[in-house]
Amino acid sequence: METISPTTRAALWMVFFCATMACLSGMIRHLSGVIPPLEMAFFRNFFGWLFMLPVVATAGAHTLKTKRIKLHFIRALFGTGAMSCWFTGLTMIPISQATALNFTVPLFTTLGAVLVLGEVVRIHRWMAMIVGFMGALIIIRPGVQDIEPGTLIILASSFFISCALLSVKHLSSSEHSTAIVFYMGLFMSPISLIAAIPVWVWPQPEHYIWLVAMGVFASTGQLGMARAMAA
Q: Where exactly are the structural domains of the chain?
């Protein structure tokens, strides 16, 4: 990818990230009703972190050096909130509706980039935000129908995803992409385990294939997203 522009490279990595997240959403839906969402979130984090161990061994332990461990932890908190809401919401509303609502992420992210990172947003991006907001209203239809709890949970997920993306953007200025994903799994695994214990159900042997796949797809996608932010 050395012969393409940084913008194109970032776009390609984000396409890769979105593709892996689409696969992950399908797996979540497949296991919904069998394994509680919060428990799925734990296994996704744990197996995703285990997947990162050989990645770290290949990249070298030096890639984990950081002076921003607090920001890694904050990013993990946002990630846990996003994941818990997303996994839960997918069990309550159709994937198509959840995916459409997920397009509100750029709205929250752009606002956050302006307010937190001080980025300058030009008129075409503001126009895109307005169109996106109108699209979200069409899906939610406030005042026309009762807003489903699943809709609100997915919107909360979008907000937390935006916060996590802004954290990654901030981290990517100094941290290796391997470190960003490694520390995410390191912190999110115990946090999500605590949340999962009250609803814990031991998976059947055949379910572990899907749970491991969740971790692999999620971590590879997160690596792509981190590289997109650094491009």
A: 6-230
How open is the CA angle 164-66-13, to the nearest 5 degrees?
A: 45
For residues 84 and 70, give the distance between their C-alpha atoms in angstroms, rounded to a whole number.
Answer: 21
For CA atoms 201, 203, 207, 211, the dihedral sign is: positive
Structural Rg of the chain based on CA atoms: 18
Other Cβ atoms closer than 10 A to 74: 17
Alpha carbon dihedral 9, 13, 15, 17, in 10-degree steps, equals -170
Q: For 91-106, how does the pLDDT look when each residue is reduced to its tens digit (9 = 90+)?
A: 888 888 888 888 788 8
- The pTM of this model reads 0.81
Q: Residue 24 CB: number of other CB atoms within 10 A?
A: 23
Per-residue pLDDT tens digits for 55-88: 999 999 999 999 899 999 999 999 999 999 998 9
What's at 99, amino acid-wise? T
